[in-house]
Amino acid sequence: MENLYIPWLFLVHTLTLVAKCRAKVPAVIVFGDSSVDSGNNNFIPTIARSNFQPYGQDFPGGQPTGRFCNGRIPPDFISEGLGCKPIIPAYLDPTHNISDFATGVCFASAGTGYDNATSDVVQVIPLWKEVEYYKEYQKKLKAYLGVRNAKKLLSEALYLISIGTNDFLENYFTLPNRQSQFTVKQYEDFLIDLAADFLKKLYVLGARKISLAGLPPMGCLPLERTTNIMGQNSCVEERNNLALEFNGKLKGLVAKLNEELPGLDLMFSDVYYIFLQIIKRPSAFGLEEARVGCCGTGTFEMSFLCDQFNPFTCQDANKYVFWDAFHPSEKTNRIISEYALKTSLAKFL
Ligand SMILES: *[C@@H]1O[C@H](CO)[C@@H](O)[C@H](O)[C@H]1NC(C)=O
Ligand SMILES: *[C@@H]1O[C@H](CO)[C@@H](O)[C@H](O)[C@H]1NC(C)=O
Q1: What is the reported pLDDT for 20?
Q2: Is 312 in the pocket of ligand 2 (CB under 6 A)?
Q3: In the record, which residues are listed under signal peptide (predicted)?
Q4: C-alpha–C-alpha distance, residues 130 and 214, integer Å
Q5: How many whole angstroms from 99 Cα to the centroid of ligand 2?
Q6: Dist CA 73 CA 85 (whole Å)
């Protein structure tokens, strides 16, 4: 009887440590770029930051956190929607520790991409380094929960990945290197191979439930519209078509990996169409302005160009599809997250 009693006590103890989530998933673990970064770049030397006002003006407490938004971003809404915590902390934030990270953690870094050369552009965390941080996190989690419980948590957690836009917009179409090496289609395939390597690495490390977001309609980001002078600042159709083509290849990769890797539940989270609907008919979603962002003139400002001294910043970001010239507003993030929870993530509710 005695040796039955001890494991039971141990179980109760670990349950109280882990049971902060009412959901089918015990934690939300995030990789990617600014679309999902909750502030890791605050702790590395880079210009790709947003830890100053007016960023975060609609965040709880009105705090700039390093999220490229006026408020919360999709991992926050998705975690909350699943019954977990409403804020996913950045792994590099020293005010949080493993007891917080055990129910959700973010390794993402604004400005990064699948391609190492993309993260070099603004000196941010390359995707391989996000994986190194994840390995370090695993060690800490095992020390905190015990190996068995940590492994269980890591296999039952929901992994959210959102990355790729910067590889095209910040790297391929902006700098000469990759263009001299690859046609656009070859570059897409290069990125797909990198995505495959990354996903296989996560699988080997124990991840099983993974949501991979596709690209948004990149040609409708205000910054892209601004360059479309001949087209009266309408969406750049070539960029949107490229996003669709790349998403098609990601979908193919998702199907292939699900077949190859036993027990893997890899989901493609298609944000393209819902995002395009919001842009084409903002009023149907309670929004008013889709062509420019709220911050500054809304045509080019982001990061350090979007600051509290810019006199043009809008009064109510909740009327805007975009917060700055590159990133959705909190309201758009909420709509897209609710859509994901109703579609690709519905089984976790
Ligand atoms: C994490 O931080 C909290 C609050 O500062 C503290 O109470 C707790 O003991 C820490 N946990 C670990 C595992 O370090
Ligand atoms: C990216 O950089 C890491 C670290 O230097 C390296 O291990 C990896 O092979 C690189 N990836 C590619 C595709 O060059």
Answers
A1: 60
A2: no
A3: 1-23
A4: 19
A5: 31
A6: 13
- Give the integer Cα–Cα distance in Å for 90 and 256: 31
The helix or strand, by DSSP H or E, that contains position 342, with its residue range, turns out to be helix 330-342
Contact (CB, 8 A) for 91 and 105: yes
**Tally of CB atoms within 10 A around 300:** 17
The span from the CA of 78 to the CA of 80, in Å, is 5
| 172 CB neighbour count, 10 Å cutoff | 25
Judge whether 13 counts as a catalytic residue. Answer: no
DSSP string, 244-259: HHHHHHHHHHHHHHHH
User: In this predicted structure, what is the pLDDT of residue 10?
Assistant: 44
C-alpha–C-alpha distance, residues 299 and 293, integer Å: 7
Ligand 1 near 241 CB (within 6 A):
no
Whether 318 maps to a domain, the answer reads no
Task: Please work out whether the CB of residue 99 comes within 6 Å of at least one atom of ligand 1.
Answer: yes
Helices 147-156 and 2-18: crossing angle in degrees, nearest 10, is: 40
This prediction's pTM: 0.93
Residue 155 belongs to a domain: yes
Q: What is the pLDDT of residue 1?
A: 37
Instruction: State the pLDDT at residue 191.
Output: 98
Round to whole Å and give the CA distance between 54 and 196.
37
119 in catalytic set? no
Of 110, 105, 101, nearest to 42 by C-alpha is 110
Q: Is residue 298 part of a domain?
A: no
Question: pLDDT under 50 in the chain at which residues?
Answer: 1-19
Question: What's the confidence (pLDDT) of residue 320?
Answer: 98
Instruction: Report CA(185)–ligand 2 centroid distance (Å).
Output: 21
CATH classification at residue 263: 3.40.50
Q: Has residue 314 been placed in a domain?
A: no
Residue 210 contacts residue 264 (beta carbons within 8 Å): yes
Instruction: Verify whether ligand 2 is closer than 6 Å to residue 128 (CB atom).
Output: yes
Q: Tell me what pLDDT residue 37 has.
A: 98
Domain that holds residue 23: 2-274
No. of helices (H) and no. of strands (E), the chain: 13, 5
Number of domains forming the structure of the chain? 1
